[in-house]
Specification:
This protein has 281 residues and is α/β, with parallel strands linked by helices. The protein has a single domain, classed as TIM Barrel. It has eleven helices and nine strands. Strands 3-2-1-9-8-7 form a six-stranded parallel β-sheet. The protein has a three-stranded parallel β-sheet with strand order 4-5-6, with helices on one face. Helix 10 links the parallel strand 8 and strand 9. Helix 10 packs across helix 11. The longest helix is centred in the C-terminal third of the chain and has 17 residues. It starts with 5 loop residues before the first strand and ends in a 19-residue tail after the last helix. Pfam families: DUF72 (PF01904). This is DUF72 domain-containing protein.
Length: 281
Protein backbone atom coordinates (compact mmCIF):
# COMPACT_ATOMS: atom_id res chain seq x y z
CA UNK A 1 0.00 0.00 0.00
CA UNK A 2 1.63 3.25 -1.15
CA UNK A 3 0.97 5.93 1.45
CA UNK A 4 3.00 8.91 2.76
CA UNK A 5 2.14 7.78 6.29
CA UNK A 6 1.64 4.49 8.16
CA UNK A 7 -1.78 2.96 8.73
CA UNK A 8 -2.28 -0.26 10.65
CA UNK A 9 -4.16 -2.31 13.21
CA UNK A 10 -3.11 -4.19 16.37
CA UNK A 11 -2.84 -7.56 14.57
CA UNK A 12 -2.41 -8.92 11.07
CA UNK A 13 -5.01 -11.66 10.98
CA UNK A 14 -8.56 -12.28 12.08
CA UNK A 15 -11.15 -14.75 10.75
CA UNK A 16 -13.46 -11.86 9.87
CA UNK A 17 -10.84 -10.46 7.49
CA UNK A 18 -10.80 -13.43 5.12
CA UNK A 19 -13.41 -11.80 2.88
CA UNK A 20 -11.83 -8.32 3.04
CA UNK A 21 -8.11 -8.70 2.37
CA UNK A 22 -6.42 -9.17 -1.02
CA UNK A 23 -5.29 -12.70 -1.88
CA UNK A 24 -1.84 -13.88 -0.85
CA UNK A 25 0.15 -16.88 0.36
CA UNK A 26 -0.08 -16.05 4.08
CA UNK A 27 -2.16 -13.85 6.44
CA UNK A 28 0.71 -11.38 6.92
CA UNK A 29 1.20 -11.03 3.17
CA UNK A 30 -2.52 -10.43 2.62
CA UNK A 31 -2.58 -7.86 5.42
CA UNK A 32 0.52 -6.05 4.12
CA UNK A 33 -1.09 -5.65 0.69
CA UNK A 34 -3.81 -3.53 2.29
CA UNK A 35 -2.06 -1.81 5.24
CA UNK A 36 1.56 -0.76 5.59
CA UNK A 37 2.26 -1.25 9.30
CA UNK A 38 1.12 -3.31 12.26
CA UNK A 39 1.36 -3.17 16.04
CA UNK A 40 3.40 -6.16 17.12
CA UNK A 41 1.43 -6.96 20.25
CA UNK A 42 2.63 -10.54 20.16
CA UNK A 43 6.08 -9.59 21.43
CA UNK A 44 4.61 -8.18 24.64
CA UNK A 45 3.53 -11.68 25.64
CA UNK A 46 6.11 -13.93 23.99
CA UNK A 47 9.32 -13.43 22.04
CA UNK A 48 9.35 -15.06 18.60
CA UNK A 49 12.24 -17.13 17.32
CA UNK A 50 14.79 -15.60 14.98
CA UNK A 51 13.62 -18.03 12.30
CA UNK A 52 10.06 -16.77 12.72
CA UNK A 53 11.34 -13.22 12.23
CA UNK A 54 13.06 -14.29 9.01
CA UNK A 55 9.79 -15.75 7.78
CA UNK A 56 7.92 -12.53 8.61
CA UNK A 57 10.50 -10.50 6.73
CA UNK A 58 10.07 -12.64 3.63
CA UNK A 59 6.31 -11.99 3.64
CA UNK A 60 6.34 -8.17 3.52
CA UNK A 61 7.66 -5.51 1.16
CA UNK A 62 10.47 -3.11 1.96
CA UNK A 63 8.08 -0.25 2.77
CA UNK A 64 6.14 -2.19 5.43
CA UNK A 65 6.80 -1.43 9.11
CA UNK A 66 6.50 -3.52 12.27
CA UNK A 67 5.88 -1.52 15.46
CA UNK A 68 6.74 -4.04 18.15
CA UNK A 69 6.12 -3.78 21.86
CA UNK A 70 8.92 -4.57 24.26
CA UNK A 71 8.30 -7.69 26.36
CA UNK A 72 6.16 -7.42 29.44
CA UNK A 73 9.19 -8.34 31.56
CA UNK A 74 10.89 -5.12 30.42
CA UNK A 75 8.07 -2.59 30.73
CA UNK A 76 5.68 -3.96 33.34
CA UNK A 77 7.59 -6.39 35.55
CA UNK A 78 10.87 -4.47 35.80
CA UNK A 79 9.65 -0.93 34.96
CA UNK A 80 12.70 -0.52 32.65
CA UNK A 81 15.16 -1.17 35.51
CA UNK A 82 18.01 -3.63 35.05
CA UNK A 83 16.77 -4.87 31.68
CA UNK A 84 19.88 -4.29 29.55
CA UNK A 85 20.64 -7.93 28.75
CA UNK A 86 16.98 -8.76 28.17
CA UNK A 87 16.69 -5.92 25.67
CA UNK A 88 19.95 -6.90 23.95
CA UNK A 89 18.76 -10.49 23.55
CA UNK A 90 15.34 -9.33 22.32
CA UNK A 91 16.81 -7.02 19.69
CA UNK A 92 19.18 -9.76 18.50
CA UNK A 93 16.22 -12.06 17.86
CA UNK A 94 14.46 -9.32 15.87
CA UNK A 95 17.56 -8.52 13.80
CA UNK A 96 16.24 -10.18 10.59
CA UNK A 97 13.55 -7.47 10.59
CA UNK A 98 15.90 -4.56 11.18
CA UNK A 99 15.21 -2.82 7.86
CA UNK A 100 11.42 -2.94 8.35
CA UNK A 101 11.27 -1.91 12.00
CA UNK A 102 9.31 1.22 12.82
CA UNK A 103 9.65 2.83 16.25
CA UNK A 104 9.15 0.41 19.10
CA UNK A 105 6.01 0.95 21.14
CA UNK A 106 7.22 1.45 24.71
CA UNK A 107 3.91 0.95 26.50
CA UNK A 108 4.34 1.71 30.20
CA UNK A 109 1.85 0.63 32.88
CA UNK A 110 0.00 2.85 35.34
CA UNK A 111 2.55 1.73 37.96
CA UNK A 112 5.27 3.57 36.03
CA UNK A 113 5.08 7.02 37.60
CA UNK A 114 7.17 10.16 38.02
CA UNK A 115 9.61 8.38 40.34
CA UNK A 116 10.59 6.08 37.47
CA UNK A 117 11.41 8.71 34.84
CA UNK A 118 15.17 8.22 35.21
CA UNK A 119 14.62 4.60 34.21
CA UNK A 120 12.99 5.84 31.02
CA UNK A 121 15.80 8.24 30.18
CA UNK A 122 18.48 5.56 30.73
CA UNK A 123 16.48 3.12 28.63
CA UNK A 124 16.01 5.50 25.68
CA UNK A 125 19.64 6.60 25.76
CA UNK A 126 20.82 2.98 25.80
CA UNK A 127 19.00 1.90 22.65
CA UNK A 128 21.39 1.24 19.77
CA UNK A 129 21.01 3.57 16.79
CA UNK A 130 19.00 3.82 14.64
CA UNK A 131 16.30 2.19 16.81
CA UNK A 132 13.73 4.53 18.33
CA UNK A 133 10.72 4.33 20.62
CA UNK A 134 7.36 6.01 20.90
CA UNK A 135 6.38 6.18 24.58
CA UNK A 136 2.89 5.56 25.94
CA UNK A 137 2.27 6.42 29.60
CA UNK A 138 -0.73 5.65 31.78
CA UNK A 139 0.06 7.04 35.24
CA UNK A 140 -2.49 9.77 36.13
CA UNK A 141 0.23 12.27 37.06
CA UNK A 142 1.36 12.40 33.43
CA UNK A 143 -2.03 13.79 32.37
CA UNK A 144 -2.54 16.51 34.99
CA UNK A 145 -0.47 19.28 33.36
CA UNK A 146 1.62 19.57 36.50
CA UNK A 147 5.32 19.20 37.15
CA UNK A 148 5.33 15.44 36.50
CA UNK A 149 3.89 15.89 33.02
CA UNK A 150 6.23 18.80 32.31
CA UNK A 151 9.22 16.62 33.27
CA UNK A 152 7.99 13.81 31.05
CA UNK A 153 7.39 16.06 28.06
CA UNK A 154 10.65 17.93 28.51
CA UNK A 155 12.63 14.69 28.66
CA UNK A 156 10.92 13.28 25.57
CA UNK A 157 11.55 16.51 23.63
CA UNK A 158 15.23 16.48 24.62
CA UNK A 159 15.49 12.94 23.23
CA UNK A 160 13.29 13.66 20.21
CA UNK A 161 10.96 10.84 21.22
CA UNK A 162 7.26 10.79 20.37
CA UNK A 163 4.64 10.53 23.08
CA UNK A 164 1.96 8.11 21.92
CA UNK A 165 -1.51 9.62 21.83
CA UNK A 166 -4.09 7.06 22.92
CA UNK A 167 -7.61 8.19 22.08
CA UNK A 168 -10.24 6.00 23.74
CA UNK A 169 -13.03 8.60 23.84
CA UNK A 170 -15.14 6.86 21.21
CA UNK A 171 -14.93 3.55 23.05
CA UNK A 172 -16.01 5.04 26.36
CA UNK A 173 -18.87 6.93 24.75
CA UNK A 174 -20.46 3.59 23.87
CA UNK A 175 -23.08 1.92 26.07
CA UNK A 176 -21.68 -1.08 27.90
CA UNK A 177 -24.38 -3.31 26.45
CA UNK A 178 -22.32 -6.27 25.23
CA UNK A 179 -19.60 -8.49 26.66
CA UNK A 180 -17.16 -7.27 24.01
CA UNK A 181 -17.65 -3.58 24.89
CA UNK A 182 -17.56 -4.28 28.62
CA UNK A 183 -14.29 -6.18 28.20
CA UNK A 184 -12.75 -3.46 26.02
CA UNK A 185 -13.73 -0.70 28.45
CA UNK A 186 -12.25 -2.75 31.30
CA UNK A 187 -8.92 -3.30 29.54
CA UNK A 188 -8.33 0.01 27.77
CA UNK A 189 -7.20 3.07 29.73
CA UNK A 190 -9.45 6.10 29.91
CA UNK A 191 -6.97 8.95 29.80
CA UNK A 192 -7.07 12.48 28.37
CA UNK A 193 -5.77 13.08 24.85
CA UNK A 194 -2.48 14.94 25.16
CA UNK A 195 -0.29 15.75 22.15
CA UNK A 196 3.42 16.48 22.39
CA UNK A 197 4.99 18.22 19.38
CA UNK A 198 8.39 16.72 18.55
CA UNK A 199 10.21 16.10 15.28
CA UNK A 200 9.88 12.32 15.61
CA UNK A 201 6.98 10.72 13.69
CA UNK A 202 3.74 11.12 15.70
CA UNK A 203 1.89 7.98 16.77
CA UNK A 204 -1.87 7.81 17.39
CA UNK A 205 -3.72 4.77 18.70
CA UNK A 206 -7.46 5.23 18.20
CA UNK A 207 -9.92 2.92 19.98
CA UNK A 208 -13.21 3.02 18.12
CA UNK A 209 -16.91 2.98 18.94
CA UNK A 210 -18.45 -0.43 18.20
CA UNK A 211 -20.93 1.23 15.82
CA UNK A 212 -18.77 2.03 12.81
CA UNK A 213 -20.63 5.15 11.69
CA UNK A 214 -20.46 6.66 15.19
CA UNK A 215 -16.72 7.03 14.70
CA UNK A 216 -17.05 9.75 12.06
CA UNK A 217 -17.39 12.57 14.58
CA UNK A 218 -14.56 11.26 16.76
CA UNK A 219 -12.24 10.81 13.77
CA UNK A 220 -12.90 14.25 12.31
CA UNK A 221 -10.33 16.13 14.48
CA UNK A 222 -7.72 13.49 13.69
CA UNK A 223 -8.42 13.78 9.98
CA UNK A 224 -7.62 17.49 10.20
CA UNK A 225 -4.56 16.94 12.40
CA UNK A 226 -3.11 14.19 10.21
CA UNK A 227 -3.88 16.23 7.10
CA UNK A 228 -1.79 19.06 8.57
CA UNK A 229 1.04 16.67 9.44
CA UNK A 230 1.09 15.35 5.88
CA UNK A 231 1.17 18.88 4.50
CA UNK A 232 4.20 19.51 6.74
CA UNK A 233 5.96 16.47 5.28
CA UNK A 234 5.57 14.32 8.40
CA UNK A 235 4.83 10.58 8.35
CA UNK A 236 2.68 9.67 11.37
CA UNK A 237 1.75 6.17 12.52
CA UNK A 238 -2.02 5.72 12.85
CA UNK A 239 -3.43 2.55 14.42
CA UNK A 240 -7.11 1.64 14.33
CA UNK A 241 -8.54 -0.51 17.14
CA UNK A 242 -12.08 -1.69 17.77
CA UNK A 243 -13.70 -3.46 20.76
CA UNK A 244 -13.87 -6.45 18.41
CA UNK A 245 -10.74 -6.14 16.29
CA UNK A 246 -12.43 -8.18 13.62
CA UNK A 247 -14.01 -4.80 12.80
CA UNK A 248 -10.67 -2.96 12.69
CA UNK A 249 -10.31 -3.19 8.90
CA UNK A 250 -13.71 -1.58 8.41
CA UNK A 251 -12.66 1.24 10.73
CA UNK A 252 -9.39 1.65 8.80
CA UNK A 253 -11.38 1.87 5.57
CA UNK A 254 -13.64 4.55 7.06
CA UNK A 255 -10.59 6.47 8.25
CA UNK A 256 -9.01 6.21 4.82
CA UNK A 257 -12.19 7.51 3.17
CA UNK A 258 -12.34 10.52 5.51
CA UNK A 259 -8.65 11.37 5.13
CA UNK A 260 -8.92 11.08 1.35
CA UNK A 261 -11.61 13.78 1.44
CA UNK A 262 -9.21 16.01 3.41
CA UNK A 263 -6.14 15.13 1.28
CA UNK A 264 -7.58 14.19 -2.13
CA UNK A 265 -4.32 12.88 -3.58
CA UNK A 266 -4.11 10.03 -1.09
CA UNK A 267 -5.12 6.54 -2.20
CA UNK A 268 -8.05 5.05 -0.32
CA UNK A 269 -7.85 1.69 1.40
CA UNK A 270 -9.09 -0.94 -1.02
CA UNK A 271 -10.78 -3.90 0.61
CA UNK A 272 -12.61 -6.68 -1.17
CA UNK A 273 -15.95 -8.20 -0.28
CA UNK A 274 -15.31 -11.44 -2.17
CA UNK A 275 -13.85 -14.56 -0.64
CA UNK A 276 -10.37 -15.35 -1.99
CA UNK A 277 -10.25 -18.25 -4.44
CA UNK A 278 -9.06 -21.38 -2.67
CA UNK A 279 -7.19 -24.29 -4.18
CA UNK A 280 -8.84 -27.68 -4.61
CA UNK A 281 -6.30 -29.47 -2.39
Amino acid sequence: MSLPYYLGSPQWQDPKWNSQLPPGPAPLTRYSRALNCVEGNTTFYATPSQEQCRQWRALVSDDFRFVFKFPRQVTHDRLLSGVGQTVTDFLAILSPLQDVLGPFLLQLPAAFGPAHLNNLWHFLEGLPAPLRCAVEVRHPAFFQKGEAERQLNRGLRERNTARVCLDSRALFSAAADSDIVVDAQRKKPRVPVHLLPVDAPPMVRYIGHPDLESNRAFLAPWVERVGQWLEQGRSPYIFMHMPDNGDALSLAALWSELLHERVPGLPELQLTTELPQMGLF
